[in-house]
Amino acid sequence: MEQQAKKRIYSAIQPSGMLTLGNYLGALRNWVAMQEEYDCIYTVADLHAITVRQEPAKLRKQILETYALLMAVGIDPEKSLLFIQSHVAAHSQLSWLLSCYTQFGELSRMTQFKDKSAKHADNINAGLFSYPALMAADILLYQADMVPVGADQKQHLEITRDIANRMNNLYPNVFTVPEPYIPKIGARVMSLQEPTQKMSKSDPNVNAWVAILDKPDDIMRKFKRAVTDSDACVRYAEGKDGINNLMDIYSAVTGKNYQEIEKEFDGKGYGDFKLAVGEAVVDALRPVQDRFYDLMNNRDMLETTWRSSAEQAEAIARRTLGKVMKKIGFIY
Ligand code: TYM
Q1: Which atom, in ligand 1's list, is nearest to the CA of 186?
Q2: Is 71 inside a domain boundary?
Q3: What is the pLDDT of residues 233-274, one digit of tens each?
């Protein structure tokens, strides 16, 4: 009964190296804001990370750092569940069940699969292909109402909804069909060097992306070098991809709208604007970085926290898994 009182939110992030300003503005800030109003469950998606080859010691370090970083941005384990995906076995179990209700054709249409298989042509494994079934399992296990993500995950949310609807047609009311929650500003933070491409930590040009843990000097350098255009006027317009991206970032971190930004930089050059964006980002990330380094010195606390969250998550997840298995016809 108490479960119905608040709507449930689920989201996850991969522990694939340094998290970026894109992750922060597109997803994590909303995760934090939603804690006040909703019943939130957040996960470090370590099982998803092995769809590309990982070095064991490095992966372990990245899982730990990602967990600490989620706490540093403001996820509060007193309010929300925050755990590591592989610690709750039901994610893998439900993933197998759902993959038997997911079609080859629909998985073949996933743009992320096409992109990643082009990038890792030597390792196009079955996990990379069936990745959306694991993501659907993550979300559906907790009967989530809403999933805060950046725009690049929209297609995966759509397939999750298709799988949930398909299962509900076969086995009535087995799953809640989740809605995506995509922010208006920050949903797609673009590369600082090629502003028609998504900002991504896998970009080999380090000036193209800002990590949440980048040092202030590096952040400033990256913004100073950001690609703009020859118009020399700070305004939001079609074809001005670089400036539009910087305006989106500035808007997301300061709360100012486009008109306010255009007025603030009226008659000023791109140099001043880039400096202001860089400084605003440094100011926004400074408290996150300070908290992160404190938390990393407290490994025992991190472990106790993720264990306690995983236990609570497990209780919910097993209930859903049991229900699905019974409906399918297993002796559970
Ligand atoms: P991941 O780890 O690639 O990214 C985590 C979140 O950050 C968002 N994001 C961005 N938003 C705006 N601009 C960008 N440049 C940018 N780059 C990344 C992503 O949209 C995402 O919200 N498959 C997922 C992880 C996952 C998941 C889930 C998400 C696993 N299970 C269940 C939601 C629900 C992924 O790889 O995200």
Answers
A1: 12
A2: yes
A3: 999 999 999 999 999 999 999 999 999 999 999 999 999 999
Is 79 a known active-site residue? no
Which residue's CA is the closest to the ligand 1 atom numbered 14? 22
Active-site residue, 116 included: yes
Residue 41 pairs in a beta bridge with: 10, 81
Supply the residue whose CA is at minimum distance from atom 20 of ligand 1: 150
The active-site residue, picked from 58, 61, 184, 201, is: 201
Domain that holds residue 97: 8-187+299-328
pLDDT digits (tens, 9 = 90+) for 267-307: 999 999 999 999 999 999 999 999 999 999 999 999 999 99
Mutate to test the pocket of ligand 1, among 149, 161, 194, 199 (most ligand atoms within 8 A of CB): 149
pLDDT tens digits, residue range 125-152?
Answer: 999 999 999 999 999 999 999 999 999 9
Cα–ligand 1 centroid distance for 28 (angstroms): 9
Dist CA 281 CA 84 (whole Å)? 28
Contact 265, 279 (CB under 8 A): no
For residues 244 and 236, is the Cβ–Cβ distance under 8 A? yes
Out of 6, 114, 119, 198, which one is annotated catalytic? 198
- Is 167 inside any structural domain? yes
Sheet of strand 39-44: strand arrangement: 81-84, 39-44, 8-13, 146-148, 179-181
Q: Do 160 and 31 fall within a single domain?
A: yes
User: Is 126 a member of any domain?
Assistant: yes
Specify whether 32 is located in the same domain as 121: yes
Instruction: Tell me: do 14 and 157 sit in the same domain.
Output: yes
- The CATH number of the domain holding residue 251 is 1.10.240.10
Q: Which of these, 182, 217, 200, 213, lies nearest to 70 by C-alpha position?
A: 213
Residue 34 shares a structural domain with residue 54: yes
Is 61 in the active site?
Answer: no
The one-letter code for the residue type at 223 is F
| Domain presence at residue 65 | yes
